[in-house]
Specification:
This protein has 381 residues and is of the alpha/beta class. It has two domains: 18-148, Four Helix Bundle (Hemerythrin (Met), subunit A) (Up-down Bundle), CATH 1.20.120.420; 168-378, Translation initiation factor eif-2b, domain 2 (Rossmann fold, 3-Layer(aba) Sandwich), CATH 3.40.50.10470. The protein is 39% helix and 16% strand. The protein has eleven helices and 15 strands. It has helices spanning 45-53, 60-76, 85-100, 107-125, 131-167, 193-202, 219-230, 243-248, 274-283, 315-318, 368-376; strands spanning 3-6, 18-21, 24-28, 37-41, 174-178, 206-212, 235-238, 254-257, 261-263, 268-271, 288-291, 297-298, 340-343, 350-353, 356-358. The strands form three sheets. Strands 7-6-5-8-11-14-15 form a seven-stranded mixed beta sheet, with helices on both faces. It has a four-stranded antiparallel beta sheet with strand order 1-4-3-2, with helices on one face. A hairpin with a 4-residue loop joins strand 9 (261-263) and strand 10 (268-271). The longest helix is centred in the middle third of the chain and has 37 residues, at 131-167. Pathway: Amino-acid biosynthesis; L-methionine biosynthesis via salvage pathway; L-methionine from S-methyl-5-thio-alpha-D-ribose 1-phosphate: step 1/6. One of its GO terms (cellular component) is nucleus.
């Protein structure tokens, strides 16, 4: 993979995790932020799989888009393919299954793969189609996903900012805590939870954003802090273990996090440490919100108990800089390093989506299927 490197925070391009033009894809290597801005050329699905697995790109929405576009680049530049339309569709489906295996917890990736399979299947079945028609249909569908993600994020920001203000005694002075990274670097642009914070700031009601380090990979200190400084949003970085003390001091109006997968009852898988924040927020009577697009909802899962939790390399804890630096732990110690935890719906105040905020109706669970049916106008089986 060729690279294009530069240093510093100059220009809006530093906040683009995905650079795409038809036939060309570059992903910002987020492992090197905030000290170095390096883009990797992604030429095919294999490059995309590796970039996702090795955390070059991360964040559930961005993972899905990067996977889809990596395959779009591969088929755009594919020459001398002589298969039938059905064989072309099968080729694409196999590549999509391979990409989904890169990081299984983020449901956006499998959701995107399912939708793209449907597109190519229909294209293959169309009368007088050829393999290039199937490839073209795939490329166009992947590009639509890229554009839709940005629009979805802006809607999440707008709905979330309005809802949170309406819930506060003083909606003109808000301090919000967030965990992990959910901004432009985790999506195609703008962000989910960080998009809500960005919207509050643009409306002039955000006093301060607090971001956690988010150990052991430090997405908060490396990435969220990077975005907040770039956007000139008043912000403070805290240790993960300082969150409860800050809440006790009365400095947090609300907590907003993202999601990698939301079960049908509202149980939510997000970056490890989210569950702890939710417990602390409940104890201190602070509203706790999840901000995520509808593609993060997995209606096939009745609860969070069914969510597969990815475990990461022990090296991320044994060595500094999320495994990239020198050893800091004792040799021979065993490690448990889950990438995510599951926050029960009972601890969540609302789920902010691009169609509005899902709230509870007198129980600990959310009627997510009912909300989607009303918002989208279709029944989810």
């Amino acid at each position: 993979m060729a690279t294009d490197s530069s240093n510093g925070l100059e220009g809006d391009n530093t906040l683009q995790s995905i650079r795409y033009h038809r036939g060309s894809l570059q992903l910002l290597d987020q492992r090197k932020l905030p000290l170095e801005t390096t883009y990797l050329d992604i030429k095919d699905a294999s490059d995309g799989w590796l970039a996702i697995r090795e955390m070059v790109v991360r964040g559930a929405p961005a993972i899905a888009i990067a996977a889809a576009l990596s395959l779009a680049v591969e088929v755009y530049n594919l020459v001398n393919y002589n298969g039938t339309p059905v064989e072309a569709a099968s080729f694409l489906a196999g590549k999509l299954d391979y990409l989904v295996s890169s990081r299984p917890t983020a449901v956006n990736l499998s959701d995107a793969a399912t939708k793209l399979k449907e597109v190519v299947s229909k294209a293959a079945a169309a009368a007088a189609s050829n393999c290039q028609d199937v490839f073209q249909a795939y490329i166009e569908a992947a590009e639509i996903m890229l554009a839709d993600d940005v629009a979805s994020n802006k809607a999440i920001g707008s709905y979330g900012a309005r809802f949170i203000q309406n819930q506060q005694k003083d909606p003109t002075k808000l301090s919000v805590m967030t965990h992990c990274n959910t901004g432009s670097l985790a999506t195609a642009g703008y962000g989910t939870a960080l998009g809500v914070i960005r919207a509050l700031h643009s409306e002039g009601v955000l006093e301060r954003a607090y971001c956690t380090e988010t150990r052991p990979f430090n997405q908060g200190s490396r990435l969220t802090a990077f975005e907040l400084v770039h956007e000139k949003i008043p912000a403070t970085l805290i240790a993960d273990s300082a969150a409860a003390a800050l809440m006790k001091d009365g400095k947090v109006s609300a907590v907003i996090v993202g999601a990698d997968r939301v079960a049908a009852n509202g149980d939510t898988a997000n970056k490890i440490g989210t569950y702890s924040l939710a417990l602390c927020a409940m104890h201190h009577n602070i509203p706790f919100f999840v901000a995520a697009p509808l593609t993060s909802i997995d209606s096939s899962l009745s609860s969070g108990k069914e969510i597969i939790i990815e475990e990461r390399s022990p090296k991320e804890m044994l060595n500094a800089r999320g495994g990239l630096g020198e050893q800091v732990a004792a040799s021979g110690i065993s490690v448990w390093n889950p990438a995510f935890d599951v926050t029960p719906a009972s601890l969540i105040s609302g789920i902010i989506t691009e169609k509005g905020v899902i709230t509870k109706t007198g129980t600990d669970d959310f009627d997510i299927k009912g909300f989607i049916k009303r918002a989208v106008g279709q029944c989810i089986a």
